[in-house]
Amino acid sequence: MGWEELERDRSRQLYKLWNRLSSGSYSPMPVREVAIGKKGGGERKLGIPTIFDRIAQEVFRAHLERFVEPLFHKSSFG
Fold first, then answer.
1. What backbone torsions phi and psi does residue 58 show, to the nearest 5 degrees?
2. Would residue 77 count as lying in a domain?
3. pTM for this one?
4. Of 55, 54, 49, 52, which Cα lies nearest the Cα of 32?
5. Which structural domain range is residue 56 located in?
6. Could you tell me if 36 and 26 are in contact, meaning their C-beta atoms sit under 8 angstroms apart?
7. 34 contacts 48 by C-beta, under 8 angstroms
8. Quick check: 63 and 70 in contact, CB under 8 A?
9. DSSP string computed for the chain
10. Total Cβ atoms within 10 A of residue 52
């Protein structure tokens, strides 16, 4: 699914994602493997997650960050 397709039926699609996340039944899809060329020749593999996986990762990151960020030292930027 592309961003354009998601945008056409955003409410229903995001509701389905939210429902799976909140019920604990969400399972990420396999990533798409893409070969990226290196400057010196050869290639490296890059994993591209689905749009729903990217959205789910961002939701989880934003939620988790609120709890763990205060635990880090003020001068920690890692």
1. -70, -40
2. no
3. 0.70
4. 49
5. 3-71
6. no
7. yes
8. no
9. --HHHHHHTHHHHHHHHHHHHHHT---PPPPEEEEEE-TTSSEEEEEE--HHHHHHHHHHHHHHHHHHGGGS-TT---
10. 19
- Dist CA 76 CA 46 (whole Å): 29
- Per-position pLDDT tens, the chain of length 78: 788 888 898 899 899 999 998 998 988 889 999 999 998 889 999 999 999 999 999 988 998 988 888 888 777 776
Q: What is the rounded CA–CA span in Å between residue 49 and residue 53?
A: 6
Distance CA 19, CA 13 (A): 10
Q: Is residue 14 part of a domain?
A: yes
Rounded-to-integer distance, Cα 24 and Cα 33, Å:
26
Q: How many domains does the chain have?
A: 1
